[in-house]
Amino acid sequence: MTLSRYASSSWRRLGAVLLLGLAGVVSSAMAQQDETPQQPLPPHEQAHFAAKTDEGVPLIIHAALDIPYAMPLLEDFHQRHPQYDITYRNFSTLDVHQRFLDAPAEADVVISSAMPWQYLLVNAGHAQSIETPTTRRWPSDAKWRHELFAFTFEPIVMVVSRALEERVGPINSHADLLSLLVEQSDALQGRVVTYSPVSAGAGYTYAIEESRLSPRYWDLVAALGRADTQLVDTTSSMLDGLADGRFDIGYNVLGSYARESVAASPSLRMVIPDDYALVIRRLAFAPRQAPHPSAARRFIDYLLGSHGQRVIAEANELGALHPELDGPGTANALRRAQPEGLRPTPLSPGLLATLDDLKRRALLSRWQREFHDQIAGKPVNGR
């Protein structure tokens, strides 16, 4: 099996879970599949949990959540409900969206951190309503029409090299980062990495949210361009490059992924910016055409219930949203530690505005102009 996209710490975590007797088989998209989809799947990895009963009930989950972070949830759910034969496929945010459009009756549950795209699908009538005692009690600002449910609370952070901070001082805010990029542009050439807003749904989401939040956002984009910042599509790519020393700063990194990687790399520090920090919430829905709707309802009810939320708090770094859970790994603890600067993206119709075609093209056009003009201009004007 090949999982080369994952950081080394995630490899170790996945290996440990498998050694503990996990009843799953992880395979690459190139491996032979038990079932033949109607059309080719985009690049993905897959985990499978065979049912432990004679008549297994299929449950198919398509998600943008790396397998090592999904494993504790899948394992716990399967132990509690061994009758389900679970197929879990992990995609990029834009690929999981496109896969749903190509095959809306294939998956039972769709999960992604690209909040506007998830909201777009549900608003267009692609989700079924799930009303259980658990979903009815779920906080109103973390669900929409009993069809779309937020189940994590994940800050967007920076990851910085401790060696760099020893030379230039601490980097604790967007303002600190901007000042450093302006003053040390030459020294940081190619040493900064962030999401591409063009090819990564998460990158676009962060760009449009930050352009609303910060009057100096475009100055920061221009400064990133002057430093020849590298653009990638996944947090794992950023963390891999930071861990092996290719980069000194990762900007707009998913904190849920960064925390574990930084814990395994003493040379790195994770920073929740103290001026403002975006917070995304991973969203799940059950498609209206889900082939196994009862299985979909059971899994979403689990994600929001105390059992699933406790796994999120204790077994990974996704940030449990359950209002009654406290302590490490919970939204309540994070809000208490960062009482002023957290900026959760609202789960509201405003998300649709971010995908308006004219607005999207205008933002991406300006982003590319502000960023790439700095690079193109350097040989001429010395910037």
Describe this structure as you would to a colleague:
The protein has 383 residues and is an alpha/beta fold. It has helices spanning 8-19, 67-80, 93-102, 115-123, 133-137, 162-168, 174-183, 201-213, 217-226, 235-243, 255-263, 293-304, 306-315, 331-337, 350-353, 357-381; strands at 24-28, 45-49, 57-63, 84-90, 109-112, 143-144, 148-150, 154-161, 192-195, 230-232, 249-254, 268-271, 277-280, 283-285, 342-344. The strands form two sheets. It has an eight-stranded mixed sheet, with helices on both faces. Strands 8, 9, 10, 11, 12, 13 and 15 form a seven-stranded mixed sheet that branches. Helix 2 (67-80) runs antiparallel to helix 13 (306-315), helix 9 packs across helix 16 and helix 10 (235-243) runs parallel beside helix 11. The N and C termini lie far apart (46 Å). Residues 1-37 and 379-383 have low confidence and may be disordered.
Indicate the topology.
Elements: H1 8-19, E1 24-28, E2 45-49, E3 57-63, H2 67-80, E4 84-90, H3 93-102, E5 109-112, H4 115-123, H5 133-137, E6 143-144, E7 148-150, E8 154-161, H6 162-168, H7 174-183, E9 192-195, H8 201-213, H9 217-226, E10 230-232, H10 235-243, E11 249-254, H11 255-263, E12 268-271, E13 277-280, E14 283-285, H12 293-304, H13 306-315, H14 331-337, E15 342-344, H15 350-353, H16 357-381
Parallel strand pairs: 3-4, 3-5, 9-10, 9-11, 13-15
Antiparallel strand pairs: 1-2, 2-4, 5-14, 6-7, 7-14, 8-11, 8-12, 8-13
Helix pairs in contact: 1-2, 2-13, 7-9, 9-16, 10-11
Sheet/helix structural class: alpha/beta
Q: Tell me the strand percentage band.
A: 15-25%
Global morphology: globular
Question: How much is the radius of gyration in Å?
Answer: 21 Å
Number of helices: 16
Percent helix: 40-55%
Q: What's the total count of β strands?
A: 15
